[in-house]
Amino acid sequence: MESPLLQYAREENQRAIDYFSGNASTTAFTLSRPVASVAQVQAVISNVPQNPGDAFTVSGNTITFTSVPPTGTNNILS
Question: How many CA atoms lie within 13 A of 4 on its CB side?
Answer without folding.
Answer: 6
